[in-house]
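Posting this for the archive.
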Amino acid sequence: MSDIIKNYEKYAEYTKKKNWKAICELNNIKIDSFGTKKELKVLADFLEEEEIVFALTSGIMKQTETSNAFDWGVNTWLVVLTSERFLFLDSAMLTKSVDTQSIRHDRVQAVSASQGWVLGKIQVDLGARTVVIDNCRKATVSVIADLANKWLRTLQNSNANQSNSSGDTTNNSQLDELEKLANLHSIGALTDDEFSAAKAKILNSM
């Protein structure tokens, strides 16, 4: 059982209490609030209903078209790994506006981390492009990458199991239909041609 599943209820509890420090401690790292104290204060306002925070850190991302107009160059963002997505928050320096961006997990191919002497980097591979969060606290990057990849595998396995379950249900239903047809044919309610045509139709759909 992965750590993210084992601690799922605790992550949910701490998210509900907005206890970001406890979430970091659950991951055996210290909370990284460098340049993101304003973002941490409003993080809960940007979470969806039932969304759970697994990990967070601060990092540098280049400006985008939606970056705060009063900031220049690179911005320090709060980087949040949740049960639904990667969430990025950036509060403007001179106003109360908050820039928010997110990447849904179904778009993510993989997450990697690299560490330097002091700082680290997180790379979110989207296939067509890679989102890079630089200048993160060294200890946080491997934790976030590890948790993200474990959660992605959990989601993929869950989706695969649901697909298999759906397929099994469909096959069972079709087998029931074949049995009914055979019974109708045996009592003479269906002619040979009618039975063969109906059976072929069901078999072709399986």
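Residues 167-205 form one domain. The chain has six helices and seven strands.
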